[in-house]
Design brief:
The complex is a heterodimer of chains A (211) and B (166). Chain A has 211 residues and is α+β, with helices and mostly antiparallel strands. Chain A contains six helices and eight strands; from the N terminus they run H-E-E-H-E-E-H-H-E-E-H-E-E-H. In chain A, strand 3 and strand 4 form a beta hairpin. Chain B is built from two helices and twelve strands. Classes of the chains: A alpha+beta (211), B alpha+beta (166).
Chain lengths: 211, 166
């Protein structure tokens, strides 16, 4: 097993590229779904002691919808999508093909639309990665929590902290310009997955040894 | 204005009098709060995991990270300041289960990590004979906590269910 803290700059760039590939494909899927252009930011790769993750992603008091999926297969990982609580009504309007501002209640149907969004974004994200790395990636069903951001994050961090002292997070923001709606996609590989990903990157890029 | 002292994950802090110890967004994590009434001394840990013996790495980690090591470490430090463990009472907050997958908790374990954290903290309190005088644990909501050294009260804020005190 490799500690995330041992990952050098070359592979950090490679992990960033994985975020790019995955989020790009997820944004395309969402664009088609809502009929609007969705942009992605340059992914941030963070390798930090697990206890410091809440400070670094910085959202102490924000309330978010967090959609959490576990990834099984060749690369065990966690994926978390977050959307600001204040954006949820507009976001579900978009998803349900209604003009933004239609709804004022987050009912069961809209909650289920959010989970479906998680399935679609994660599915397209993982498909792109699976193709690029030539690997098998299987997502769990999504789980949804609307709560304080650090509390949403803490379940994932606690699970990770049984395995390693550091976490590697790949964070990509997606946003729509007209409505200003945005969300974040976090891909957090399990410590056991890091070597697998690095080997796959070596094979894909032809790099023999980058340290 | 009271002084706010932030307690990060896997950390513990103490304060006196007007100090307020704060920790944000406990999900399955647990806040262990100790209070000494005479000198109005408060100490709080933000605990992540029930058992330090189950982790897979051997690096320097803060004892406040684990339920089975946090209390002893806190009491040892407080002892150095002249506070015997007999002077403290405890409150426990947190240990929620934030996510369920199709009705099941994560991880295959019959108990989720939030529940295990709460049980492990209470077991340590029992072993070291610190009275547990208040708790707000379990459920499915995250909690932010403010712990007032002046009176030993914990104010708990949730995203959807307002505030309460223990």
């Amino acid at each position: 097993m490799r500690e995330p803290s041992e990952i050098n700059a070359f592979y950090q760039d490679a992990f960033q590229e994985l975020g790019n590939i995955g989020a790009g494909n997820a944004a395309t899927a969402l664009s088609q779904l809502v009929g609007r252009t969705i942009h992605t930011s340059v992914p941030k790769v963070m390798i930090v002691p697990i206890e410091q993750v809440p400070d670094i992603v910085n959202g102490t008091d924000r309330i978010v919808a967090g959609i959490y999926l576990k990834i099984f297969g060749d690369i065990p990982a966690k994926m978390l999508l977050t959307f600001a609580h204040t954006d949820l009504l507009a976001l579900t309007d978009l998803l349900m093909g209604q003009p933004v501002g239609t709804s004022n209640l987050l009912n069961e149907m809209r909650l289920s639309a959010l989970k479906e969004l998680g399935t679609i974004l994660t599915g397209s994200f993982l498909n792109a990665l699976a193709k690029f790395l030539d690997m098998r990636l299987i997502p769990s069903v999504p789980a949804l929590a609307i709560d304080l951001f650090p509390a949403v994050l803490d379940t994932l961090l606690v699970e990770l902290s049984e395995e390693a002292r550091y976490a590697l997070l790949i964070q990509t923001e997606i946003h729509e310009t007209e409505t200003k709606l945005s969300g974040n996609i976090f891909l957090i590989p399990e410590p056991d997955a890091l070597d697998v990903i690095i080997e796959a990157i070596k094979k894909t890029t032809g790099v023999v040894d980058a340290g | 204005m009271p002084d706010k002292i932030k307690v990060g994950m896997a950390d513990w802090k103490f304060g006196r009098n007007n100090d307020v110890l704060v920790t944000f967004g406990l999900g399955s994590c647990v806040a262990l709060a100790l209070w000494e009434a005479k000198d109005k001394l408060a100490a709080m840990a933000h605990i992540m995991l029930p058992d330090s013996k189950l982790i897979r790495y051997r690096q320097e980690v803060s004892p406040a990270k684990f339920a089975d090591t946090a209390l002893t470490a806190m009491l040892e430090e407080l002892q150095k300041l002249g506070y015997n463990k007999e002077r403290f009472q405890a409150k426990v907050v947190g240990g929620a289960n934030m996510f369920t997958f199709a009705g099941k908790t994560i991880g295959g374990n019959s108990m989720n990590v939030g529940q295990r954290n709460v049980l492990a903290v209470k077991e340590e309190l029992r072993k070291l004979q610190i009275p547990l005088v208040g708790e707000d644990t379990g459920g499915t909501s995250g909690r932010s906590v403010e712990f007032y050294a002046a009176n030993g009260i914990l104010r708990i804020r949730t995203a959807m269910f307002g505030e309460k005190e223990v």
